[in-house]
Design a protein that fits this description.
Belongs to the peptidase S54 family. One of its GO terms (biological process) is proteolysis. It catalyses: Cleaves type-1 transmembrane domains using a catalytic dyad composed of serine and histidine that are contributed by different transmembrane domains. Keywords: Hydrolase, Membrane, Protease, Serine protease, Transmembrane, Transmembrane helix. This protein has one domain. The two termini are 14 Å apart. Helices cover 66% and strands 0% of the residues. The protein is built from 5 helices and no strands. The chain has 122 residues and is mainly alpha-helical.
Length: 122
């Protein structure tokens, strides 16, 4: 048995969150196809590098999905909140209100993290 180490899983989590951000704010991008193709090529190249021996591609895929799903929890602002903030009178702010599915996914994510930490001890 060997131990897994390295930051590639975290990078895949960031790629998943970047994909979610791109899809969520799709209308704000001027070069939509270019941004999507660039991100998908980066993901494909990194997954292709997973065929190297002793690289756990399943961990990469899991971290990608985790980053994508946690993006729903952590990206609280709605799509046009930035534009709305700049059109408001000075001193007034838009409160961040998490949606019900964000709170549910947060509970699921925390449960899975705690369960994963407990399984790691066995």
């Amino acid at each position: 048995m060997y131990t897994l180490q390295g930051a590639s899983g975290a990078l895949f989590g960031l790629l998943g969150a970047m994909l979610l951000e791109l899809l969520t704010n799709w209308t704000l991008y001027t070069h939509k196809a270019g941004a999507l193709i660039t991100l998908l090529v980066m993901i494909a190249i990194n997954l292709a590098l997973g065929i190297i021996p002793h690289v756990d591609n399943f961990a990469h895929i899991g971290e990608f999905l985790t980053g994508f799903l946690l993006g729903f929890v952590l990206l609280l602002e709605p799509q046009f909140a930035w534009l709305e903030r700049h059109n408001l009178p000075p001193g007034r702010k838009i409160p961040l209100r998490p949606k019900a599915y964000q709170l549910l996914l947060l509970v699921v994510a925390l449960t899975l993290i705690i369960a994963g930490l407990e399984l790691k001890h066995f």
